[in-house]
């Protein structure tokens, strides 16, 4: 068996897990197949590698200890605790496997092409969804049968990479192909009706423009030069308001723009409902949990043990889409708010878990930030520069998503991110400049 084939199979299974569900194949079987295959790839790569040292190992051990302490403190010896841990363990094992595995340029080229094709298939899958289902969160391309936040993170991941390719390959990249691909992923997001897409993408565009100008090409920071980018971001948000039925008062595609309605809806949906006087939504949930842990407000917690703010209530205490709560100390009305990644981590593993998670991705962000600087990024070829910059930008998105939105970093969509991160750490020839 060639070295690339098992990795290709992992990506194909991961990106078709939603389609398997539709045709009657249990997602559980597919998930165990994916994770078992990654474990075998890891054992093979680890056993045959002569490399010393594994990137991000210390940070991963700290996160593992946070989960372990949460289990021991809460007495959470349920299978859900392992499931919680696997969401970080499996992508990290894939990362180590690619880092250690001896992949030739041809092997890597074919894996890259497989990933690109799988992403393009997601655009194609959005058309039958629109025809047979309409604008809906349910069904995310072929990757998910249920729906949710991947309607936001998948097109953002793709668009950040396409933008990075354009920044570093302006003279060679096909503007026509790029235009159609960008339109395709915006179409994908429109069909998925996720509101956050219209906020996150312009914010990332503005942040990325700042880092690119200041650190990649060494342009002095001049606010007036960023002003056109900010205006483009505002225009993009306005387009999102009219195209997303939830954000306009007529509740329809192509509805009128009413900024007062959008403001009131956004605040009520994400933070606070003036009519009921209740904190709700994603930020409202964050506020309730932090308030309970620091004061005696009792929004969510009936009572808490002495160190629950530090170690949480156990990894399986807030597990899955049904928010399984089996704890006499907790009283959660699950419809009152939407849990962010921060909420899930804080509730499950406490402040220790939150800090361990942020430390892990902070290390990645700092590593990529050092690589995007003008005097370092020149060591990469044009494709490599696009990979480094897009990984850097998606790392920032992961932190923003964790704090304010969701936890798609715990889904199989994160696999391409860790795959390309491994290529960066191993300085693979496919991304490095020929000496």
Report the principal-axis shape.
Answer: globular
Structural Rg:
22 Å
**Helical content (DSSP H or I, runs of 4+):** 55-70%
The count of helical stretches stands at 17
Q: State the major sheet.
A: 2 strands, antiparallel
pLDDT averaged residue by residue: 88
Number of domains: 1
Poorly predicted segments: 320-326
Descriptive notes:
There is one protein chain. The chain has one domain. The chain contains 17 helices and two strands. It has helices at 5-15, 17-22, 27-48, 57-74, 79-100, 105-132, 150-168, 175-192, 197-216, 223-243, 259-270, 281-294, 308-311, 341-372, 374-377, 382-404, 415-425; strands spanning 272-273, 278-279. Strands 1-2 form a two-stranded antiparallel ribbon. Strand 1 (272-273) and strand 2 form a beta hairpin. The radius of gyration is 22 Å and the shape is globular. Residues 320-326 have low confidence and may be disordered.
């Amino acid at each position: 068996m060639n070295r690339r084939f098992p990795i290709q199979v992992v990506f194909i299974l991961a990106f078709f897990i939603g389609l398997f569900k539709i045709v009657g194949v249990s997602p559980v079987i597919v998930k165990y197949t994916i994770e078992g295959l990654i474990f075998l790839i890891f054992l093979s790569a680890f056993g045959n590698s002569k490399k010393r040292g594994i990137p991000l190992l210390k940070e991963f051990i700290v996160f593992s200890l946070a989960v372990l302490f949460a289990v021991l403190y809460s007495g959470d010896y349920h299978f859900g605790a392992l499931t919680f841990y696997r969401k970080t363990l499996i992508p990290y094992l894939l990362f180590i496997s690619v880092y250690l595995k001896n992949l030739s340029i041809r092997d890597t080229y074919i894996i890259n092409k497989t990933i690109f094709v799988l992403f393009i298939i997601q655009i194609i899958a959005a058309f039958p969804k629109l025809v047979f289902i309409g604008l809906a969160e349910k069904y995310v391309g072929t990757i998910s049968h249920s729906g949710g936040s991947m309607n936001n993170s998948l097109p953002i991941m793709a668009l950040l990479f396409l933008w990075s390719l354009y920044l570093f390959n302006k003279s060679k990249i096909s503007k026509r192909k790029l235009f159609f691909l960008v339109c395709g992923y915006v179409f994908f997001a429109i069909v998925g009706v996720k509101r956050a897409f219209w906020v996150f993408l312009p914010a990332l565009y503005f942040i990325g423009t700042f880092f690119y100008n200041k650190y990649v090409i060494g342009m002095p920071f001049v606010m007036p030069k960023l002003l056109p980018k900010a205006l483009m971001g505002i225009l993009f948000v306005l387009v999102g308001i009219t195209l997303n039925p939830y954000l306009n008062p007529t509740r329809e595609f192509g509805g009128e723009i009413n900024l007062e309605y959008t403001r009131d809806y956004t605040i009520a949906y994400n933070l606070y409902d003036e009519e009921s006087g209740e904190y709700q939504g994603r930020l409202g949930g964050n506020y309730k949990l932090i308030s309970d842990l620091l004061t005696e407000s009792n929004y969510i917690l009936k009572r808490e043990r002495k160190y629950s703010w530090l170690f949480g209530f156990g990894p399986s205490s807030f597990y899955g889409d049904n928010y399984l709560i089996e704890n006499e100390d907790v009283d959660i009305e699950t419809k009152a708010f939407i849990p962010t990644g921060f909420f899930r981590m804080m509730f499950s593993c406490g402040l220790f878990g939150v800090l361990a998670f942020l430390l892990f991705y902070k290390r990645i962000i700092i590593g990529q930030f050092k690589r995007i600087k003008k005097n370092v990024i020149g060591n990469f070829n044009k494709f490599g520069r696009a990979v480094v910059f897009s990984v850097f930008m998606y790392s920032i998105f992961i932190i923003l998503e964790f704090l304010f939105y969701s936890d798609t970093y715990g889904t199989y969509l994160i696999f391409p991110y860790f795959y390309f991160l491994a290529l960066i750490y191993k300085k693979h020839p496919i991304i490095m400049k020929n000496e």
